[in-house]
Amino acid sequence: MTDTPALDQRSTALIDELLWLARHAQQRIELENLGDYWYVLGQRNTYARAAALVAAPHLGEDSAVIGERIVDALTSGSATSGPGDLAQLRAATLGTTAPATSRASSRLEWMGRKAFDARCADIPGLDRDFGMRWGRTRNQRLSLRRDPDASRDPVGMLYAYDPTWDEYALIQRRIPDSIVGAVFLDALKLDEHLPVEDFARLLEAHRDIRTRVVPASLTAPATVSPAASPAFRVLEP
């Protein structure tokens, strides 16, 4: 059993208040026909991150990691059921319980822009966007940074971007464009909002594929306009 980290009374009270606000926002998000969904989502994430910032000095952990645990607990459902019980959220904050969702235990390593640039900025090319619909929040982007020197057999670096946390995850450093296109079609058949972690698993299942017929819309030149190819956008890196 993990020992409970010691928090002073003032910090504990502040964290509880922020967790209550985050949970209240999550309960609003779960309402049907919520008109200000994105605003309330931002509130929830802000309160969760604020609670993490208060707890981080006491726990000796990165506040981003703590914040992810809190959001995972909020979205698991159990943390929002009771009107006054914050035990699940406190446990998630302190790290004394297992993560509630796959995000914290994912094989993908999520990182900020600086860390991502330090690791991947040396990879040239144009980003080919495979949609901004992915994940639980339906706003994560998948992009393939195509190697400009591999025109005959296009390959590139596949990565994901999460605008909610402003974080990136490297999925494959070098993978054929044709395989990504094929997996993209398979993913849409399963779930048009498939988590990027599951998209990565589909890629692994296809990694031995050397050729695959891909519709022309998926192999169009990088100069094709977004209107002509609605599933993709070509972006400057």
Describe what you observe in this structure.
- The chain has 237 residues and is an alpha+beta fold.
- The protein has two domains: 9-105, no CATH class; 110-235, no CATH class.
- It is 43% helix and 14% strand.
- It has eight helices and six strands.
- Strands 1-5-4-3-2-6 form a six-stranded antiparallel sheet.
- A hairpin with a 4-residue loop joins strand 4 and strand 5.
- Helix 1 (9-29) runs antiparallel to helix 2 and helix 2 (37-59) packs across helix 3.
- The longest helix has 23 residues, at 37-59.
- The model is unreliable at 99-106 and 208-237 (pLDDT under 50).
- Could you tell me the mean pLDDT? 76
Could you estimate the helical fraction of the residues in percent? 40-55%
The gross shape turns out to be elongated
| Series of secondary-structure elements, N-terminal to C-terminal | HHHHHEHEEEEHHE
Instruction: For the record, give the distance between the C-alpha atoms at the N and C termini, rounded to a whole number.
Output: 46 Å
Strand content: 5-15%
Largest sheet, order of strands side by side? 1-5-4-3-2-6
Number of helices: 8
Structural class of the helix and strand makeup? alpha+beta
Radius of gyration: 20 Å
List the uncertain runs.
99-106, 208-237
Assembly state (oligomeric): single chain
Main sheet summary: 6 strands, antiparallel
Number of domains: 2
Number of strands: 6
Question: What tags apply to this protein structure?
Answer:
2 domains, disordered C terminus, 237 residues, alpha+beta, 43% helix, single chain, six-stranded antiparallel β-sheet, 8 helices
